[in-house]
## 1
Amino acid sequence: MWLWLARSWLISGRAETKRLDRRRPVASNWMHCLAAHHLISASMVSLEELTNLQARAEADLLAAVTVGAVDVVSAAALGARSPIAEARRGLRDVDPEERRELGRAISEVADAIESAVRARRGVLVAEERTVHLATDRVDMTLPGRRPPRGAVHLVMQVWEEVVDIFTSIGYTVASGPEVETAYYNFDALNTPPTHPSRLESDTLYVEYGDHPEGVLLRTQTSPVQARWMEAHDPPVYIVSPGRVYRRDAVDATHTPVFHQMEGLAVDENITFADLKGTLSYFIEQFFGPGAVQRFLPNFFPFTEPSAEMHTSCHVCGGAGCRTCGATGWIELLGCGVVDPFVLETAGYDPSQVSGFAFGVGIDRLTMIRYDVPELRYFFDTDMRVLEQYQ
Ligand code: DAH
């Protein structure tokens, strides 16, 4: 019976050894001890065998080069299925006189292995920490990584600045739709049906809703004038910045989308002099004191008289240079006294009130102020250009 048991332990011990070999080479040694020990416990563990266990454990600990390997040796040497544990369990079969001595011997070996485990573990933890500190060092002197920060686009900065100039003298900001009817974009602004700007070669039409006169992407911010006057009684002091669309091919000074700001003042006794005074004030605020203006006659359907306003070239101060095409002047905006037809169409009485209006290109103002040679720089997403103006 004992022989049979011992053989089966041995066999199962070997089988297990093979299986564990592949995964835990350190533990495998211990399976031999375990197998041997089953034989021992069947009789009794000898002091010599205990000494061997300790020697083997100490050798395995020395061979262990990671904390994990130490844990494996420790579990194999001292765990529930270790020879030491088995030997302890076997004590109950030992004569009481010998039990004490053998028990103490087992405890001494266990204590010795435990302190060897602790010592080896301590050494390896320290070593691993040293390696870790050396390889995983944080350089506190490195600059932090900044998340990329957004910034207001240069054209939008100018947009806000020109709006501020006008709101600070009492103007209200108005807005209107970018998809506009031909009525507000042209008819209400006294633009005859035959006007060339209405042609599909100039204006982008869209199919939208039931508007027989046509729906389009607004070509100017001027329709906001008509919409505002229809909805509000005079006096009117509004500016209306916004996006406008034209069927233009992209070149240095044209893009199919750009930005304008419309201005409209309607009150009693408004004259061309008020227009000149207001725009001169605006130019001085925007370009700084000393900027000279001139007004040249022009034609716009919605103003009479109409003018275009020029300012002295900010680059050469009027002497003539490349920026101003050697004229000393830069064309800035269109303006004029609101045509009585426009007032009437909006429901105002031209005998009671009069007004002036102007339309200025915001992109153009930006190009002039910052000496940007190409309009398309604003729309290309080249960060090297845009980052200069944060
Ligand atoms: N809407 C004109 C354009 O896009 C600019 C303009 C000129 C607006 C004269 C006005 C004005 O209000 O009175 O070219």
## 2
Amino acid sequence: MERFDAIVIGAGAAGMFCAALAGQAGCRVLLLDNGKKPGRKILMSGGGRCNFTNLYVEPAAYLSQNPHFCKSALARYTQWDFIDLVGKHGIDWHEKTLGQLFCDDSAQQIVDMLVAECEKGHVTQRLRSEVLSVTRDDQGYTLQLNGDSVQAAKLVIASGGLSMPGLGASPFGYKIAEQFGLKVLPTRAGLVPFTLHKPLLEQMQTLSGVSVPSVITAEDGTVFRENLLFTHRGLSGPAVLQISSYWQPGEFVSINLLPECDLASFLDEQREAHPNQSLKNTLAMQLPKRLVECLQQLEQIPDVTLRQLNSREQESLVELLTHWRVQPNGTEGYRTAEVTLGGVDTHELSSRTMEARNVPGLYFIGEVMDVTGWLGGYNFQWAWSSAWACAQAL
Ligand code: FDA
């Protein structure tokens, strides 16, 4: 049976980085994945350009039942460390918006960089590898694979969450955690579009593809100021993806479709200057025409001139456009979600090394654990930081 110092399961962002660093530090590392290629999610990410980190990474941008857990790793391996690594590999990047850093060229460059780092660490890589069982004894961990068995003193689980099963996602990491007595918190899809109830969806059919700046607020008071996109299934765009991680079934979200305009003052000014201008044309100066037409068809916008608009009608219009209360039917689920909320309870792990407190030699890194970042490069930064912290301990 072949023996290694450490086996890393999952050749995604966290697993590849951890294997590379441990290998470069002198460990004999085996990196396993069930897929044909390493880093499949990286290749898909950021529209093919990988939003690999964020200039403004801070613990407050992460959801976890244990909000302090992520602090140590994020402080010890920062966005600047990863930017430095990317620079050393000659990868050009740009900031798109809100501190989000993307490759100028392609996400493939990040995968190639991680592959090169693994090669530098002489990491043995086995793709298309199913782990049939994991057992632990005095020798460490023995893994039964499809074909043979392998053994190592240390086992790192980097198998990710449940989002996008088409890209190899599996509950493997949660099962291993449970096998070794670790608590796994309930999981749900995060950074995911909302679906709407049929009547509302039918009313908004014509809006598919319309994007507007918005401020969106969850019932717990969390607020995001980003674009909202109407789709043929419901609502999406960065504002909705962000708030979806803070939304629970049955709850409402409140949407301001005119965050950059004081609508009441704008209407008063326009009325003063152009009393015979139609309300519809006035609103179309601030909102996409298709949205105004849809709201008029739904009789939410009265067919009147500004002079004819009475104060009660104006108040309800302002309320509708700046505090639109929507109760989503649900989310599109793991099929399209970018991340999985919940997972291995971080109370079970050391925040310094990611090792299970009560199971020596067993580590969890990346998305498999209950640490989930905002949209915008925060999740990859967690993969890099948690992988780095773990690699120091292998
Ligand atoms: P990851 O999912 O990357 O890797 C897990 C690996 O384990 C996979 O290779 C999988 O095949 C393997 N595996 C699973 N089960 C296994 C088993 N039983 N046996 C062997 N191997 C197994 N984040 C961000 O910061 N910026 C971005 O631009 C994006 N964009 C984005 C787009 C899309 C479409 C998605 C789905 C997600 C994003 N994300 C993102 C989120 C980001 O991709 C995610 O948080 C990280 O990839 C998590 O890294 P991990 O290494 O933990 O898991």
